[in-house]
Structures are given as C-alpha cells and as structure tokens.
C-alpha cells in the first residue's frame, strides 16, 4: 500500500488516498466499498453474505418487473376480450364467444358442417394471445373450429360438465389440472389434453380436424388382362357376349369395377355380371360345363360377362379392374411458423 508520493504505508487514516496492489481476483470497480477484516476466513464469510444479498435484491427487482409486465399484459388481454365479447365474432372462422347451451343448440340445428368444439386454458395471458392468434389463421370451409371458451388458469369442474354436455375438447397449456377436476372428467368421460409445446397442441388439433373430414375415395387398379377369344352364350333367352380373358397381372375380382379398352378407347366401365371357368376358359361349352368363380389371378384364364348386354368383346381388348380405396384426408391448415 502506497500514498500519493509512492511511500510505503502500513496504515491509512480517513481522507488519505492510497494505492493498493496485489488483488487476488478481479479489480474492484470505482465506487465499490472495500472492507478490511481480521482474517481470510472472516473475509470469505462476508463475501458470501454480500453475494447472497445482491442475488436476493436482483431477484426482487426481477419479480417486480415481471409483475408489472404481467399486469400490463393482463389489462391488454381483458380489454381485448371485452372487445371480442362485444363484437361476438373476430376476423376468421373462429368463434370466440362464451355461450349458453341453448344458444349452442340453436346454432347446431341448421348446421350440417362438421365441427370441433374447443375450450382453452393457458398459464399466462401472453400464451393465450399467442394461441388465439394461431387459431385465427384457421379458415377452412370444410370443418368449423368453434372456440367455445378460453381463459387463463386451470379448468373448473363446471368447465368439464359443459364439455360433457356439448362435446367440447378441453385443451390445457402449461396448466396443472386440479385433482378434483381430473376425477370429474374421468367420471364423465371427458378428455383433457395437456400440452407444454405449442407445436404439439397445433398438431393434435389438426389431427382432430382432419378426422372430421370425409375420406377421399380413389380408384386403385388391381389387375389387368386381355381378351384372347370372344364368343356368345344364351342366358335366360338372351344372347350374352363373353370375353375369354387371360390375366396379365394382379387379380380380376367380380366385385371390382371393370374397364374395357379397345385401341386406347374406353368402351365399357361398370360391374361384372359373372365369371366362369372351364377346362379351357376360352372355349365355353354350350352344355354349360363351367364353374362359377369370383376371382382370377395372374396367368389364369376366365370368361367374363359384363352388366351391359350391348357390349361385344373382341380379341385383344384390354380389361382393367379397379377397386375403391378410401384415403384419409388432411385438413388444409398450416399456421405461419408451423
């Protein structure tokens, strides 16, 4: 320790400027207090105390800041909700209206569109607003998204009962569901879905909306063959054209849709009336020495009659069989950022 003239000092009295060298760790910043204690153990004890005091002070300041921010968000949320309730309906197809059962019933009577009813509970106002903004991007005309009720905090038993009466989905985000509410939900058979990642909530909702869509029916080709001989038989006093077909791939089933092409032109599309095989499918015996079958596979020969008596098979006609295939559709909804 030195004075302003560079002289060594062992003691400094008040108002004496000194230069202290040999700090073990970081140099103190201007304005900090410097304490001298009897030993190092006591010094470390004081350091720990002051660090703890400083951390507590910072935590208190952070808490006050968070309180102020939450209060501001809460006021904004309440104001927005008041406007929404006054308006009844916000831009988009999402209805943000807390409704009575009678109103919902009246709404359902003339509504044939499938719908998903939703009740949303979140941890804080900011999360609620974020999710409501996501729901506002939903604009499908095929399935209605009906947000019946939303709030901050856990759902109540009355919410569960309302969900039971109206078939509402209960979604909770970062919310602990009270044990009594869980018990009531189990007794009433009401599902409560809890999430802590917005992406997971949106994916689950998309899946439920998609489940409301009717399946898309497509025609899948399951077999093909060609006519190797054409002939006629009399069935119930009516002349009927028979196509002797060799199956090239797949299967030909009586229940499948049959398409007949001649020089790439479709001349028939409809059902199969009958399928028969004999010792040689291309040679139908007029004594009816044949066997009725319901399907034929690759490299098998089969005689086929169709539902239209005016169709006359010719050699080298191509026959294709198709089967209805139901495909699950996905709702067209991709919120920004998801």
Structure characterization notes:
The protein is built from 6 helices and 13 strands. The longest helix is centred in the N-terminal third of the chain and has 48 residues, at 40-87. Strand 5 and strand 6 (238-253) form a beta hairpin. Helix content is 30%, strand content 30%. It folds into 3 domains: 1-71, no CATH class; 88-211, Rossmann fold, CATH 3.40.50; 216-327, Beta Barrel (Elongation Factor Tu (Ef-tu), domain 3). It has 338 residues and is of the alpha+beta class. It comes from Brugia timori. One of its GO terms (molecular function) is translation initiation factor activity.
List the helices and strands and how they pair.
Blueprint: H1 40-87, H2 101-109, E1 115-122, H3 125-136, E2 144-152, H4 157-166, E3 168-173, H5 179-188, E4 192-195, H6 198-211, E5 216-235, E6 238-253, E7 257-262, E8 265-270, E9 272-277, E10 291-292, E11 295-297, E12 301-306, E13 318-327
Parallel strand pairs: 1-2, 1-3, 3-4
Antiparallel strand pairs: 5-6, 5-13, 6-11, 6-12, 7-8, 7-13, 9-10, 9-12
Helix pairs in contact: 4-5
Task: Please write the string of helix (H) and strand (E) elements.
Answer: HHEHEHEHEHEEEEEEEEE
Q: Beta fraction of the residues? A: 25-35%
Helical content stands at: 25-40%
Mean pLDDT: 82
GO molecular function: GTP binding; translation initiation factor activity
Domain Translation initiation factor IF-: 106-206
InterPro entries: TIF_IF2 (IPR015760), TIF_IF2_dom3 (IPR023115), TIF_IF2_dom3_sf (IPR036925), Transl_B-barrel_sf (IPR009000)
Protein name: IF-2 domain-containing protein
